[in-house]
Every structure is written in structure tokens, then in C-alpha cells.
């Protein structure tokens, strides 16, 4: 399998050209249009190399590098800045922040590929040196072994439970007894204030786990999980899950990555609530729903979303969210019906100004 490269670039033209050059060189390319998406993809996909533009709205390249270098899971991934700024001060700032290289746009394709190959070869040499010093093969478990073991547990030992729409999986204040794995459907996780108002903290889809943070901490649930539609969920007993974590490094690493990603997403959500307008937060919420309903990236597909769930995710009143949706409809950004929303202009929502 070829090397995987994460390309973080807000310009569609830049994404397309640079991505095509890399793909022609037999690299697998992941695309991220903004900093938040790039950080999430870096943690979830763990690429071999990250290429990042510096000039981006909200979270620029320096902010992205700072967050990734603080995370033990991503701190060693080679990181190359791409920028049209060729001042010495900018170069020094990039390199002192921890970047492995700094490329000035526009660059020749051959020079660009040589810089990419140099960083990948350097990382290969470092990893080979580490492996030479390891005496036990158990310290480097094969990824497929760990993931297959978990799938065997799910397939052979546990039955799938059917949940109806609006049925609760677990409630705030309850003690965890199992880990939840979603086979089918979508589940919202939310907190409730003293007045009974909901605030959605997370939306999970098929193939994702929920309830693991409190289970690992040994604390009561701080949130409630409820099916947004008919769902099929597998429950894994605490003792079996903890046994797997203690005896399989790969499974443990997967959940460490997920916990780290959750923390970063919480920070991003808090910043959004504090500094973004309701209009921008509605755009972000719609894009989040799009990623859950259509992760393959297909646009202009219908999403069944209640206005109440959307407002609880945005953190604003339902009336305010409905007015913003009406504006979006007039601007031909979305199409709405009583129970559904269809995104018509993905790029404009993604670049919505604050």
C-alpha cells in the first residue's frame, strides 16, 4: 500500500492540483478544506505526512501545527508548510514551530515531490531505527490482529439490540455497564440543564462507539444517548472491553485516539459557541450532519433533521435557527421541507463568514 498524505488547503484549485500531482506519484491523498477538519482527519487517519497551507480563516497553519504537536498521537507525523509568503521571518516562525519543511508557492512539481519523498524517507529511517531496538514483537502489534479480534468479539459473543427512534441507550447519572457499538442508525449524545434544555455534544453513526470515556474513567455518565432514528446497537460488557484494552495494544491505541479526538472537538465546539455568530454555527451544524448522513462526501442529498435537534446542536433557540434556515433557503444554500434539509451549496456553507 502506498503512503498516505493529508493535504490541508482551503483553495479548491490548490487542493485539486496538488492532490493530482501526489496521486500521479502513487500516494493516497486525504483532503481537508479547513483547520478543524484537518486536525480531525490527522487523528483519525494517522497519515504518513501532512501538507498544510498557512493562510486559512479561523485556524491557520500555525494553529494546526501547534495542536498536532501537543498531541502524542500526531506529534511525530512529518509536517510541511506551503505558503505564498516568502519572508525570512515567516520561514523562521514555521520552522521554529516544529515544521519539517517550508515550501514557497508556486513550486515546481518535481521539487515538490522531492521534498515530500525526503520527509517520508526520513520517517522510514527513524521508524526502522526504533524497531531495531525493540526486542519483543508484542511492542508492535499488527493493526489487523487487534481490529480483527474486536470484530470477533462483536460477531461471536454479543447480540444486536434494536432501538426505536427517541429510545434512550443510557442516561446522565447512570453508571456504565457496557460499551456501545452502533451497527446501524444514528445516536445523539446530549447534556440537559436544570431547565430541561438539551445541548447536543456529539452525533454518532454506524461504525462508531459511544459511552467509552465514562467507562474508562469509572464515573457516571455525564450525558444521555438517544436514538435519532431506528438503530441497531451492540453492547459489550465492561469486563470484556477492559480485558481487550489490557491485552491488545492496538485496540487500546484506537481508543486513545478517539478520546484525544473528542477532546479536540470539544475545544473547537466551545470556541465556536464563544466566538461564532448563530449564522455560522448553523452552517457548521449542517456540515456536521452532512458528514454523518453522507460520509462519502456526496452533496445535494436529503438529511432528515428535526429543527429541535438542529437548534440543540447549534446552541440557539429553535425560532432563531428557523429564521437562519429561511435566510439560507432564500440564498439557495439549502432546500428545506417540514422534516428534512438538503445542502445545495456545500462550499458556501463551508466558507461562511462570521
Automatic annotation (TrEMBL):
Domain HTH crp-type positions: 276-347
GO biological process, one term: phosphorelay signal transduction system
Pfam families: cNMP_binding (PF00027), HTH_Crp_2 (PF13545), Response_reg (PF00072)
InterPro entries: Bact_response_regulator, CheY-like_superfamily, cNMP-bd_dom, cNMP-bd_dom_sf, HTH_CRP, RmlC-like_jellyroll, Sig_transdc_resp-reg_receiver, WH-like_DNA-bd_sf
Response regulatory domain location: 4-120
Residue positions, PTM 4-aspartylphosphate: 53
UniProt KW keywords: DNA-binding, Phosphoprotein, Transcription, Transcription regulation
Molecular function terms, GO-annotated: DNA binding
Residues annotated as domain Cyclic nucleotide-binding: 154-262
Signal peptide extent: none
Domain of life, per lineage: Bacteria
Protein name: Response regulator
Organism, scientific name: Rhodocytophaga rosea
Amino acid at each position: 500500500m502506498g503512503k498516505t498524505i493529508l493535504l490541508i488547503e482551503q483553495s479548491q484549485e490548490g487542493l485539486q492540483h496538488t492532490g493530482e500531482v501526489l496521486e500521479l506519484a502513487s500516494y493516497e491523498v486525504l483532503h481537508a478544506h479547513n483547520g478543524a477538519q484537518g486536525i480531525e482527519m490527522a487523528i483519525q487517519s494517522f497519515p504518513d505526512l501532512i501538507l498544510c497551507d498557512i493562510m486559512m480563516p479561523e485556524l491557520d497553519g500555525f494553529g494546526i501545527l501547534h495542536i498536532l504537536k501537543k498531541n502524542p498521537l500526531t506529534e511525530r507525523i512529518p509536517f510541511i508548510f506551503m505558503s505564498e509568503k516568502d519572508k525570512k521571518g515567516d520561514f523562521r516562525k514555521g520552522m521554529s514551530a516544529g515544521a519539517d519543511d517550508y515550501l514557497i508557492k508556486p513550486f515546481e512539481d518535481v521539487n515538490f515531490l522531492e521534498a515530500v519523498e525526503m520527509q517520508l524517507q526520513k520517517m522510514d529511517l527513524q521508524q526502522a531505527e526504533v524497531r531495531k531496538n525493540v526486542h519483543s514483537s508484542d511492542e508492535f502489534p499488527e493493526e489487523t490482529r487487534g481490529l480483527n479480534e474486536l470484530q470477533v468479539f462483536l460477531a461471536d459473543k454479543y447480540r444486536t439490540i434494536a432501538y426505536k427512534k427517541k429510545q434512550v441507550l443510557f442516561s446522565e447519572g447512570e453508571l456504565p455497564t457496557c460499551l456501545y457499538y452502533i451497527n446501524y442508525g444514528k445516536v445523539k449524545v446530549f447534556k440537559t440543564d436544570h431547565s430541561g434544555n438539551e445541548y447536543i455534544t456529539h452525533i454518532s453513526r454506524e461504525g462508531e462507539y459511544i459511552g467509552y470515556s465514562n467507562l474508562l474513567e469509572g464515573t457516571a455518565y455525564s450525558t444521555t444517548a438517544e436514538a435519532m432514528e431506528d438503530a441497531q446497537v451492540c453492547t459489550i460488557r465492561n469486563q470484556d472491553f477492559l480485558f481487550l484494552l489490557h491485552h491488545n495494544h492496538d485496540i487500546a491505541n484506537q481508543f486513545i485516539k478517539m478520546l484525544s479526538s473528542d477532546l479536540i472537538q470539544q475545544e473547537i465546539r466551545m470556541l465556536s459557541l464563544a466566538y461564532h455568530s448563530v449564522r455560522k454555527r448553523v452552517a457548521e451544524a449542517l456540515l456536521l450532519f452532512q458528514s454523518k448522513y453522507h460520509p462519502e462526501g456526496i452533496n445535494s442529498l436529503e438529511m432528515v433533521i428535526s429543527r429541535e435537534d438542529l437548534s440543540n446542536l447549534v446552541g440557539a433557540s429553535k425560532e432563531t435557527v428557523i429564521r437562519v434556515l429561511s435566510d439560507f433557503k432564500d440564498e439557495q444554500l439549502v432546500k428545506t421541507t417540514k422534516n428534512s434539509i438538503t445542502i445545495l451549496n456545500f462550499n458556501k456553507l463551508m466558507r461562511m463568514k462570521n
